[in-house]
Each structure stands twice: as C-alpha cells, then as structure tokens.
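Run folding on both entries below.
>entry_1
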Amino acid sequence: MTTLQPPFSQADLAAQLRDLGLQPGGTVMAHTALSQLGYVIGGEAAVVEALLRAVGPEGTLMMPAQSWQLCDPAYLDLPDVPAEWHGAIREGLPAYDPQRTPTRTMGAVAELFRTWPGVHRSAHPQRSVAALGPLAESLTAVHDLDDASGERSPMRALYDARGQALLLGVGFDKCTALHLAEVRASYPKRYVPNGGPIQRDGVRVWETWEELWLEDADFREVGAAFLAQHPTAKHGPVGSADAVLVDVRSLVDFAAEWFTATRGVVPALG
C-alpha cells in the first residue's frame, strides 16, 4: 500500500532549502520544476516565497526568464512553421518588453517570479534572466544580443558574484551557467544567425546578430562528472524533489576544461 506524502508548506520548503545549503545573503540562480515537488500548499507562489525566505532580504534570487517565441523563425526551424511564413513572423512578433513578455518553457515558478514586485529582468529578447535582491540590478544590467550566456551576460555576472546554482527537481541539462563554460571552452564551434524584435528609442526594430550555437546534450554528463569530483556539492530533498546546490564558479571552471577535453574528439576506430 502506497503511503500518501503530506503536503509541503512554504515554511517546510524554506527549511529544506536552508538545510540544503542556501544561506541568508547568498546569491543563487534557481531552476525549478513545480511538478516534481509534490503537493505544495500555494503552488508556485509558495515556492518563490520559500526561496526568498531562504536567502533572506540580504540575498539575491535569480531565475531564467527566456522567451524563445521571439527567436528568428529560421533559427528555431520548427517543423510546423513553413519557411514562407518567416517574413510575416519577423514583421509581426511584438517587441520584447521586460515587464510584459512571457517566458516560454521555463515553468510556472519562473513565469511567476518574472512578474514579482521589484524584479529586474535583463534586456535580451530571448534569453533574459530575472533577479530580485540587492545585486539584482547589477546582475541583469549587461546582456549583449550576440553573447547571451557569455562574458557580456548575467551568467558572467553570477560567476563574478560567486553565486550558486540550484537545481530543484531538474537536471544539469537545465543549468544555464553551463553555457558560460561552453563560451570559455576550446573546441570546434559553430556560429549561427539569429534575430529578434526589440525596442530602440521607443521604436520596434528587428535586430540581427550571429551567436554561438549552444548545446546541452552533454550537460547531464558533465554535471555527473563534476559531482563525482566535488563532494562539497550539496544534495538533498526539497519537497518531493531531489535538489542539488553547486558553486557556479567551480562548476563553470570544471565544465570549461571538460568541454575542451571531450567535445570535438573523434572516437578511435575499434
């Protein structure tokens, strides 16, 4: 007979997050899957409140706020969007608005967080980051169109702030900081065209750029390798989910070397 797990309150989640290693005054980028947490009283609002409670008013909470719907349709190359539609889509997509543009595929917690009072959101039309706390403005201030996860992005700012990454019911394939490691690694890289609608001087314009083609197929593998060599990483339950808390600087440094060593290597013939 299966035992029904009791519901989790905001206070329960906050206590578990503290036990995991979140500290008052810390800076953390959270990646969450509400569906993995069990029955949370208050749903996504309780999760946001618990995260804010864990880091306290002196801490800064970040979450991804990506809006993939504003990518160039040729970049997305969706099977149900024929090429003859691309021109109309480029002309008709609304300009990115940090206050109004919804997230896409980020989950209920991240979508609510981007609307939270006082949240700052970075300027990239597709890969924005939302943040709340004393460091929020500085963490989101720089986000170049052609460097969405690199040295001119919130990921570099998070690295410099010696922040943490929290994986709450998700795997390393959702860890945005690993894209900074891709930028820093040495392997055969591919750059692709992209574009999106932005506002410039109050006028909607379609901006184009070239960017590094980012991968995540090996993110779970590099995450497992990192955990195997870094026993100080934190593991534990939050709600019904498995949670992992890692130091961003240690993870990015490790992954940059790992990508350099593994990507682009041709397997030997057996």
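>entry_2
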Amino acid sequence: MSDGPSPERPPGWSAEQPPPYGAPPASPWTAPGSGPQPVSYGQPYGEQPPPPPPYGARQQPPPPPPPPGAQPYQQLPPPPGYGHMPPPQHLRPGIIPLRPLGLGDILDGSIKFIRSNPKAILGMSALAAALASVPVAIATAVMNGQLSTLSRDPESISSGGMIGTVVAGYSGILISAVVGFIVTTVLTGILTRILGRSVFGGKITPGEAWNLVKGRILALFGVVALVGLVMLAPVVPLVALFVILGLNTSSAEGAFGLIGLGLLMLLLYAAYALFFNARFAFAAPIVVLEGRGPVEAMKRSWRLVSGDFWRVLGILLLTGILAYLVSSVLSIPFSFAAQLLGVTGADGVGVIAISAVLIAIGSTLASMIVYPFQAAVAGLLYADRRMRSEAFDLVLQTAAIEQQRQGWVHSSADELWHPSNAARS
C-alpha cells in the first residue's frame, strides 16, 4: 500500500468521513444520459428545469394539427387557474343549444324562431289569422250595429230581425271556426317544418316548406280531428245531464245545487282537457317531422309525455297564459274602439264596415304572434323530450358538427328527426 494520497481520493479523505456535500453518486440503474441534473441552489422558485421522465417512460408526440375546416363552433378558453373547471360549452348552430332544454331555452328559442325569418313566419301567420277572423269580425260588427240601434230605438227592430241578427252572428262564428281549423292546421305543419330546419341554423322558404308538408296535410287534419273528438267526448253527456237536472228542478235550493253542480262539471272538464291536451301535444310535430299516421302519432306523443308529464303540462299551461295575455293586449284596443264606434257612431253600412275592419285588425295582430309562438313551443318541447328520453341531442350534435365542417345545412337534415336516428329507443 502507498502512504501517499491516491489520485482518485482527495487529500484528507477517510472511510469514516462522508464525502463533501454535492451531487449523489450515479446509480447503476440510471439510464445513460438521464441521471440527475445539477441544481443551482439559490435560484428563484419556478425557474428550475423540469425533472426528466422516469426511466423507461416514452415521450408522447405532440398532437397533430386539426385538418382545415374541422374547427368546432366555439373554441373553449383556457381555465383561469388551477382546479377551476369552466362550464361545458354546447353546440348552438341554430335557435337552441343542442342539449336538453330548460324553460328559458324553449321560450328564447321560440322568440328566436320568429326573429330568424320574420317576413315569412309573420306573413303566413297574418294571412291565416285574417282568413279566420274576417267572418267573425263581420258578424260581430253586424251584431254591434243592431244592438246600438236597439239601444236608441227599441221598437225599430222586430223580433224576426233580431233573431236573424243573432243567427247571422253565430253563423259567422261557425264559419270562422271552420276556416280557422283549416288554416291553422296547414300553418302548423308549415311552421313545424321551418322549425325543424331552424334548429340547425338553416332557413327554408314557405314554398319549400309547403312542398315538404303537403303530403302530410291529410294526416295533420286527421290528428287534429281525433284530438278534437277526444276533447269533446265528455261534453255531450255532461250537457245532457245538466239539462235533465235543470228540467226537474223547481225549488230555489235545487237551483243553487244545480249551479254548484255546473261549476263542478266545469272544473272536471278543465282538468280533463288539460290532461289530454298535454298528452297529445306532440302529435302534430310527430306527423310532420317523423312522417307517422294520426293514431301512431298520438300513441308516440303519449309515450314521450309519460316520462315528464307534469313538466310538459306546466310549460304548455304557462305558454297558454302568455299567449292569452299577448292576444288580449293586442286585440282589446281594437275591439273596444269597434264597440265604441257602434254605440256612439251613426247608423249605416259604413259604421259596420269600419267596426269589422277594426275587429279583424286586432284579431290578426294577436294571432300572427300567438300562432308561431305556440307552434314553436310545442315543437321545441317535443325536441327536448326526445333529447331526454332518446339521447337525441347526440344525433343532433353529430349532424351539426358535420354540417359545420361542410359549411352549410343540407336538406337531408330534415331526415334526422325520424325516430330511427335516435341514439337509444
């Protein structure tokens, strides 16, 4: 052994003395080139180089760039901080987001539907409303004129003339009901077809919508007629029972009891009408968008509503209240002016004509807003029920992404509403 210092050992080194503070010796299991890197102590925090990957770990290559034209609708912003998860962004190519809808989404989508193509939608609604309101407006104006004459000179109108006036008034109401049944059924089909394309952000003209709907008109009339028969089914026996009880009642106590029974019947019928109106609310959209027959459409509407009956009923009831308020605000001033003109104005055909025009204008303004709004609510509520029960939002999202990639909405989007395209049944 040599007493001098070894060239591999520093002077003063001994087996009992630890080596100077520094980097630890390299491990024999460390891969070449992946040993610990020297650390400069005293560097500010955050400026140290990232640690090397463990031995055997593979470096993941960076993701490839997206192909041209495959950008999504919305680019998500980076999270603002560690642990923060931003709310998910949903596709919204058209009037609604492609996910299960809330009440606000349905009402907002209905308004956006009208605003997306106001000339076509409001124009068709105004035409349908005018056709339905003109007969009843004329009849109402004639009745107002006769009542005005009767109030000033009770002996100027004979009993036969008064009966003729009443018959003419109710005839106008009946004609308006028939015309309204026809035009609103056709209008519902056209608006539903336009709505189906608006969900994807596409537009369709009334002529194109009519070409797509005209093959379903008979089925639409069938489903409206069947739903009407269901609604009127209890009316005949209830009225007959009320008349029979009324003929057999002579005392005051019996009269009050009959009035109470009539109110009870009215409440029961209101509950009956609300129940079946909610159950068959989707029958018309199903006929138009899915191409089903009247009976099949009513059965499918019953099944779709069964999963969320009270929510559907509440939204439809709220929509009806909103439609009534809007209709009243728009039509009452014109009706009041017509009645005021009939009471204080001069007699003659001119007064009757002006009154009829005022009533028709008020009814048309009210209906041109209410018709498309209610049709849109029913259609969007139908889409929401399919999203919740059939995962239909996945189908809509996939189609929307493909249409975004292509840059336009193809007419084949109408076929996506067929139930065979549902993610699950």
